[in-house]
Amino acid sequence: MSAAKPKNNSMRYDLQIIASWIEPGTHVLDLGCGNGALLKFLIKNKQVTGSGIELEEGKVATCIEKGLSVLQGDISAEVSDYPDQTFDYVILSQTLQQVYEPDALIRALMRIGKKGIVSFPNFSHWACRMQLLWTGYAPVTKQLPFEWYNTPNIRVITIKDFRKFIHDVGLKILNEIAINTHSQDRYGKIIKFLPNMRATYGIFLIGNK
Amino acid sequence: MSEYIEHDRDGVSVGIVEKKLFTFAEPPDEMVLDNGAKLGPVTLAYETCGTLNSDKNNVVLILHALSGDSHAAGYYKNEDEKPGWWDIMVGPGKGIDTDKYFVVCSNILGSCMGSTGPCTTNPKNVQPYALDFPVVTIGDMVAAQKKLMDHLGIEKILCVVGGSIGGMQVLEWTVRYPDMVVSAIPLATTTKHSALAIAFNEVARQAIMADPNWNNGNYYYGPKPNLGLAVARMIGHITYLSDESMRLKFGRRLQDKGDFSFNFDADFQVESYLRYQGKKFVDRFDANSFLYITKASDYYDMEKLYGEGSAVKAFSRARAKFMVVSFTSDWLYPTYQSKAMVKAMKKNGLDVSFCEIEAEWGHDAFLIPNVRLTTLMRGFLERVCRETKK
Hints:
The complex is a heterodimer. Chain A is an alpha/beta fold. Helices cover about 30% and strands about 25% of the residues of chain A. Chain A has a single domain, classed as 3-Layer(aba) Sandwich (Rossmann fold), CATH 3.40.50. In chain A, strands 3-2-1-4-5-8-6-7 form an eight-stranded mixed β-sheet, with helices on both faces. Chain B is α/β, with parallel strands linked by helices. The interface between A and B is medium-sized, with 19 and 25 residues.
């Protein structure tokens, strides 16, 4: 595992780590790119070419205003249109837990991209475990601030689950970092000891075997 | 397209512009049209604003819709009541910034706003062409615009932009002259008309041709088919609006009366509005041009013309960076049609942005002040301009 040295703290901490993994001059697709912070950073600092997909009209417009190439649509549907191996990296940051068919999406990711980068909130963080164990209620944390009936996070994933999943679908983990973030997720630290228990997010670089 | 011309709220304008004429294809070197017919001489009316830079790489070509003209922005003279049809978008500091870009807008072939069309005098018999005017296509319109670009010494166009039938010309530009077009913005448009769109056009054409004054197109020396053209325009206006916009704008409100008149006057506001729009239109538009341009739009099928029926194959010719924009309430060119072209562009690995703007004003939304559309245009143009200079 390589330790990342994030440079831009105006971005979410997990995006800083993701940015540190991207080779300069590559071709990137950011799924669920939000307001385009990562893409903008990568184009400016890593000379990548790239585009994004985002569902919300307002965010799409923000991205295009910033000079990014972004299209409005549902990521699960939109990924199917690209030819094989179009991108060097396909990024899915903090969205996997909201996807209806994660296995199909990950397979599509690895069809259109040479490598995939996936980050997600870790449901087996000790705070989640404690809430379930001691209160008996479904966990509500800073990273997962919703009640069971209004959460968009329909998939309960842990770092261990994701490792097993990648193995099961016949893919390979090329790099992984577990992090703990604070202050609106802008700052954080890398968790090496007991990550499945102590990290709030997992970030994985995956590739084909 | 309707003429929702509004003064820019800030009063910013490109100022005084001049309509110019460019004539080419003088016999015997006539223009050969898509259907094999020859036409010449051909005149295009056009206007420019902004300044062409020394590298000639700041050109934005605006392509207008059915009833538009070359007068996209500014005023012909200080006393003009209204500016050009897209003055809200084109001008200093606006979405298409005339401080940065050299904007060209030409009136389409077949129109009646200064370019050669059915109301132009046929040099062979010194009479208006009327129905002797050949049926022109979207491709012919674009081929004529290419001649204009050649005349202006422009080899690369930074961006071709247009909505509706103008959007069809945008798409045609990207596959007919792919090496000339750096970027393209097709707005509220389609690669081919749906049966619904053709049906409305046909009803509009029938309204014109059913008017006894139409006289097989020969009305230039007598009374014009104003009733037919007005009804055609009324039909058009219905398709440019939406259920929602008509409900908001008119509902079932009555026009200047408390109760029904129990006759066939215009009782409802929506009736009164349509009658007004129809009547206003006949003063400025030629009925035969309406027939020719709507037919050209119905015939247009980019997939058939360039891809043997496949949109993916058709767009494989294109090299431009695209920004496709649709509007939620547009039922004439619904979003699914824009999404289909975006899909084909993606399959070809083209650089494409797409945004479906939430708007209640139907197909006409692109002509109405809309901050979202303005900022999208500005952002996209700045990017392609920056990437071109790299």
